[in-house]
Amino acid sequence: MRRKTKRVARAYHHGDLRDALLSAARDEIERSGYESLSMRDLAASLGVSEAAPYRHFTDRRSLLAALAAQGFRELEAAARRAMAKAPDPVARMDQGARAYLAFATRSPELFRLMFVSDLLTRAAPRDSSLVSVAHQFHHQFEAVVSGLCSRKDERSVKAAALTIWSLLHGFALLRMGHRLIPFMLGPLSGADLAEAVLSVASDSPNSIGRGLDHRRRGPRARKKQP
Amino acid sequence: MRRKTKRVARAYHHGDLRDALLSAARDEIERSGYESLSMRDLAASLGVSEAAPYRHFTDRRSLLAALAAQGFRELEAAARRAMAKAPDPVARMDQGARAYLAFATRSPELFRLMFVSDLLTRAAPRDSSLVSVAHQFHHQFEAVVSGLCSRKDERSVKAAALTIWSLLHGFALLRMGHRLIPFMLGPLSGADLAEAVLSVASDSPNSIGRGLDHRRRGPRARKKQP
DNA sequence: ACCATTAAGTTAATGGTGTTAACATCGATT
DNA sequence: AATCGATGTTAACACCATTAACTTAATGGT
């Protein structure tokens, strides 16, 4: 229904099916959740045969992976744009965090697909381009946090980055539980709460540094990773 | 495979199918992810016919919902047990948070099912008992955080609870991205990172209070505050 | 002791799904 | 102009959730 009917109204070749699939799939998952996306319905909605999508994506999984990769690129771009006009590192962090939360709010299902689906963790043929774009995203995030940290050693920065990311990430996800959230909010407005979270995010690099120093007895008492 | 073969080795009635289904399903989802759980395979693995499970669960969804509800009860019990011997509110929070993270580590797929699947948010016939047990869980969580807060008004407590929960929740989920995490960790051990996160969790109630006061300059600057 | 009821299994069928093989069409290259 | 590869189609296959209709066995009232 995109721009297909424009041409001859019955062209044998769609002309732009790959993009049309991604775009239609994206609309569809926001409507009904990514778990219930049906390849057949998708094809039908574009007026194309059941098997046509498989000329462009080997799998349903790979279509979803492409969607997720597109989401990562988009999120990175949005964050970059938001941070562009920030004067100092603190403002950069703040704007970046806002962009992250805004993305999760605008496209919750895409966000879930990117971060909590089994695409990145399960199944043998993991889409390598998806993995690389996800890594790239995290790299940029660490750079932003680094600007915020007083101590720039790798340990501190990585700890701070993952802590702040955890906070934003968890908040974004909890906010999606439509029925749960009103119960949790009480008299609090969503905006106020977001401010609270963001203020903690800005403060935390210091706490993290203190935390790491406080708790460690021996230089590196243990090397194991649970 | 439970205690079925004990009796007569070919009893027409299984005797304990409901529990057996839940138990087998739980094992299975931790092995292959909850999205790919198959009712047929499940039935087959218990030596029972394809339709048998539907005598105990109306749906695949409702089986998963029962699994999730069981998870909530278990998590709540584990947290309660962990917090039982804590002398003060700070220790309570710490122990509760550790129990939460430990649960997510021990049963990652069940955790995903409980918190980021579409069970609680999507679809018309939402399992009401699941919703209520989830609410109950959150209520207990708020009580723990309340003990940690200097200011006990509802606004502050709810903000603190959701902030701390966000942090733990996000960390638990990020830690599941098997391939992502080594990349994020760098020279940091997982245990050290957990300590950092936990220390922020303990500190944050104060930050949150400050955050809320600082940032608000709207019309009704304070509504229920002496 | 009988029998009706019912919970808990069974088999068989329905309809939907991802996916693939074999064939068809068309735009582009030679 | 003939060909060839990319893109689309049709017709299958295998899997899966779910349901209808039937069977078995245990239970409880008389």
Question: Which helices and strands, and how do they pair?
Answer:
Two copies of one chain form a homodimer.
Chain A: H1 17-32, H2 39-45, H3 60-84, H4 89-106, H5 108-115, H6 128-148, H7 154-174, H8 180-185, H9 190-215
Helix pairs in contact in A: 3-4, 3-5, 3-6, 4-5, 4-6, 4-7, 6-7, 7-9
The structure holds a DNA duplex (30 and 30 nucleotides).
Task: Write a brief structural summary.
Chain A has 226 residues and is mainly α.
Spell out the key features of this protein.
disordered C terminus; DNA-binding; 226 residues; 2 domains; Tetracycline Repressor, domain 2; 0% strand; disordered N terminus; mainly alpha; 65% helix; Arc Repressor Mutant, subunit A; homodimer
Report on this structure.
The structure is a homodimer of 226-residue chains. Chain A has 226 residues and is mostly helical. Chain A folds into 2 domains: 1-56, Arc Repressor Mutant, subunit A (Orthogonal Bundle); 61-215, Tetracycline Repressor, domain 2 (Orthogonal Bundle). In chain A, 65% of the residues lie in helices and 0% in strands. Chain A contains 9 helices and no strands. Chain A has helices at residues 17-32, 39-45, 60-84, 89-106, 108-115, 128-148, 154-174, 180-185, 190-215. In chain A, helix 3 (60-84) runs antiparallel to helix 4 (89-106), helix 4 packs across helix 5 and helix 7 (154-174) packs antiparallel against helix 9 (190-215). The first copy, chain A, is elongated. Residues 1-9 and 214-226 of chain A have low confidence and may be disordered. At the A-B interface, helix 6, helix 7, helix 8 and helix 9 of A face helix 6, helix 7, helix 8 and helix 9 of B. Chain B binds a DNA duplex (30 and 30 nucleotides) through residues 12-14, 17, 38-41, 48-52, 54-56, 58-60.
